[in-house]
Amino acid sequence: MQLSHRITHLTGGGSDGWDVFYRARRMKAEGVPVAELTIGEHDIRTHASILAAMDASAKGGHTGYAMVPGVASLRETVAKRIEAQTGVPTTADNVLITPGGQAALFAAHAATCNSGDTALYLDPYYATYPGTIRGVGAIAKAVQTHAEDAFQPRAADIDAAAEGAVSLLINSPNNPTGVVYSRETLEGIAEVCKTRDLWLISDEVYDTQVWEGEHISPRALPGMAERTLIVGSMSKSHAMTGSRCGWIVGPEKVINHLINLATHTTYGVPGFIQDAADFALNAGAELEAEVAAPFRRRRQLAKEILAGQNTLGLVPAQGAMYLMLDVRATGMSGEEFANALLDTHHIAVMPGESFGKAAAGHIRVAMTIADEAFAQALQTLCTFAAERANTVAAQ
């Protein structure tokens, strides 16, 4: 007996690029103190008021099967949120509640791709994107963005790759780069999608973490509502990563089919989790700002620290909880730099190569430890980079 090609080729073969992260975790398990600036996990926990709402719902009996499309009140709350953001009329019938953003990404591609279809995604990319596409039997095709453009996608590059493709996956604010796509960028993407008849899957899980510019959902652009599926989540906006509650917003006909998919796969999200999410979203912007505040603060700390050195290049840190740093002046790849930094200073960062070819020679720094420890780790990282660059210059 054999396993399916679909399941055995999810990662495309070879390393998944996360060796540094796994090594750092092993070091920590062995008692080595490691400053972990790797994954996008808040250093604060879910707000006590959200947990209280969750507890009250569970104790009140909402522990059985919940409606597969989602609890009506949460679907309505998400619909109002997306309508306010986009200006596009949106109802609960446009919303499916999912077990987190990752399940929403999978479902969106299941809805838009047949087996053997080509699905586009932008490089650098969040680590699960190509595997998610392969998981629905589609062919994952990367479209590279460029460091010299601050990783803003070029419409011409997408158009050149779009022959025969059926969908495009984008992410703004972006993980791993921290870039927020400009209106000009999104309008170019929209024109390609309309010209090439592509579905656009827009991962907007960092929409509450915008430090510069504005978050624009492509659903708001002319002619895009009928071809855009928005992926959202409670994980980043409300520090509810473990609660696994997200959504897809799209045309009603798509949502109806996705409800059938959910019936045969996830069978919904626990009701008490959904009630807590509904409470959290209705708590308003103040709570979201409180969750985002540590990253806004640390971004400013990072900009001040990086202004005092000339080795590392900072990709415009406009949103999300990450910094993307160009380490090429050290003469090292991102992977070499990250491994050496971990070995010499016990600071763990993600190599840019973990997120695709376009970020080679970069590292991603997650701003996810306390301010003082973060500042100290970043200062050490800068000193390490300068020492390596000086060694290269002396050779």
Give your account of this protein's structure.
Its cofactor is pyridoxal 5'-phosphate. Its EC number is 2.6.1.1. The chain has two domains: 140 residues, Aspartate Aminotransferase, domain 1, CATH 3.90.1150; 220 residues, Type I PLP-dependent aspartate aminotransferase-like (Major domain) (Aspartate Aminotransferase, domain 2), CATH 3.40.640. 42% of the residues lie in helices and 15% in strands. It contains 13 helices and twelve strands. The strands form two sheets. Strands 2-8-7-6-5-3-4 form a seven-stranded mixed beta sheet, sandwiched between helices. Strands 1-11-12-10-9 form a five-stranded mixed beta sheet, sandwiched between helices. α5 packs across α6, α7 packs parallel to α8 and α11 packs parallel to α13. The mean pLDDT is 96.
State the separation between the terminal residues, measured CA to CA: 56 Å
Uncertain segments: none
Radius of gyration over all CA atoms, rounded = 21 Å
**Superfamily (CATH H level) name of the largest domain:** Type I PLP-dependent aspartate aminotransferase-like (Major domain)
Shape: globular
* Sheet of most strands: 7 strands, mixed
Structural class determined from secondary elements = alpha/beta
| CATH-level-2 architecture of the largest domain | 3-Layer(aba) Sandwich
Number of domains: 2
- CATH topology-level name of the largest domain: Aspartate Aminotransferase, domain 2
Regarding CATH, which class of the largest domain?
Answer: Alpha Beta
Strand order of the largest sheet: 2-8-7-6-5-3-4
Element order: H for helix, E for strand = HHEHHEHEHEHEHEEEHHHEEHEEH
Number of strands: 12
Strand proportion: 5-15%
